[in-house]
Amino acid sequence: MTILVINNKGQYNHRIQRSLQYLKIPSKLVSNDLSVEEIEAENPIGLILGGGPSLEGAGNSEEFIKHFDIPILGICLGHQLIAKAYGGEVKTSDTESYAQVKININNDENLFEGLAPEMDVWSSHKDEVTKIPQDFEILASSNLCDVESFKHKDRDIYGIQFHPEVHHTPKGSTIFENFYKICQKQV
Q: With a threshold of 0.90, does the pTM exceed it?
């Protein structure tokens, strides 16, 4: 009944796992260099792909995205890796900043349940998803980024450009609680 947090070497990966602990959500932080078989041995109910400095430092994260049929939440770099794995496009942002922004929530089912129509978030915009993959829909956008969040139309695969694990995202814990509910439905 554990969610694995895939450490993509970003500054907030440990905070993701700590946030889950505070919420009493069973979780474990693991290296992105583990093999698919090592991840399978953990028998996770979901994966959270953390942020990181670059697509090149993401270890086996793309393999995990393609292999596992369990709920997946990508945060920042994890969001971009999901887009890339499914044929979307990621480019350097025109704004290139870390900032608190207000996102507009287009779909408040599942991941954003109880949060619409707007939410203050801490967002990273060095790189961003500029074109979503074919089988995805946009869940949230902002004046800085057209794709603050997306979801696969048929599977529980979500991406968010922002960081729910920091205090600059006041309702970020609700994102983790909602994702945990999504994972529990799959068990």
A: yes
